[in-house]
Design goal:
Length: 277
């Protein structure tokens, strides 16, 4: 059983981040039980896959976050898909994707993650991404990002700071494994000689954050809970995530009704250094 941090009010960033880490590890352990036992795949209304692992992981995270002394609105993938979306005012809100890279999980590839983020004033300021099948956790708060190992599914060890690298030429590009689009192919083609790696889930942000890649072009749909935690870690490590007009990607409900209010526009995430074009 994981112990809870002593205090975790939204203003207490260190305690909040350690709560995110503990809940992500606990959710990851539940996901791994399903990964090892095998799990039935169902289809959501939008035809995307969902499993008992998604639901159990989300229940663990939401129960933990509900113990926060001051209630902060929380938008999480499976609840939102079922129509449960809180009002997100000016005081910040949480974004949770209990199992990002569900297609990788189903196909028994280890690049799937648990994601918990805090958004303030439209920017992702705290984030934890945990890849339980890789035993790797990433965390970030303004000014510092970390990678830690989790070998036993319970305990975090070997915590080390991570930073983005200055953009290499040609750049190293990470792109979606399961959701590539012609526009992504065209972006890659504009960088002759670039080494391209296909990776599922929010790990793409973390690979840039730890300096092992330079660019993540996303010319295909995502939801804000897919990206907020990884984006927070990337920004904390010195990178940025930009809309195609060069402005920072922002978070929070946008214009539409229901779940579509949390759809993201296309973006390019990048490490430190100048943009190649
Ligand atoms: N047509 C679509 N509309 C909205 N989001 C989509 C989508 N196709 C894929 N995604 C999002 O892309 C995520 C996977 O990204 P990647 O391809 O980088 O692994 C999915 O997360 P889930 O696996 O949590 O459902 C899903 O939210
Ligand atoms: Mg997702």
């Amino acid at each position: 059983m994981l112990t809870m941090p002593k205090a975790a009010a939204p203003g207490d960033e260190t305690a909040l981040l350690s709560l995110f880490e503990e809940l992500a590890v606990e959710a990851g352990a539940a996901i791994m039980r399903h990964y090892e036992a095998g799990v039935a795949v169902e289809e959501k209304a939008d035809a995307s896959p969902v499993t008992e692992a998604d639901r159990e992981a989300e229940a663990i995270i939401l129960a933990g976050l509900a113990r926060l002394p001051v209630g902060t609105p929380c938008v999480s993938e499976e609840a939102a898909s079922g129509g449960v979306i809180p009002v997100c005012g000016d005081g910040g809100f949480l974004l949770v994707d209990p199992l990002d890279g569900t297609r990788e999980f189903i196909n028994r590839r280890p690049d799937f993650t648990v994601n918990i983020a805090l958004v303030r004033a439209g920017a992702p300021v705290l984030g934890v991404v945990y890849a339980p099948a890789q035993g790797l956790l990433y965390a970030g708060h303004p000014g510092a990002a970390f990678e830690a190992r989790c070998r036993d599914g319970k305990t975090l060890t070997d915590r080390r700071p991570i930073r983005t690298e200055t953009m290499r030429q040609p750049p190293r590009i990470v792109a979606s494994r399961s959701h590539l689009t012609p526009e992504t192919g065209a972006f890659i083609a504009r960088h002759p000689g670039a080494e391209t790696v296909s990776v599922g889930s929010s790990l793409k942000f973390c690979i840039i954050a730890r300096g092992d890649a330079d660019l993540y072009p996303r010319f295909g749909p995502t939801m804000q809970w897919d990206t907020a935690a990884g984006d927070a870690i990337l920004r904390a490590a010195g990178g940025r995530t930009l809309n195609l007009d060069g402005s920072p990607l922002t978070y929070g409900p946008k214009g539409a009704d229901g779940i579509e209010a949390f759809a993201s526009s296309f973006f390019v995430a990048e490490g430190a250094g100048s943009r190649p074009d």
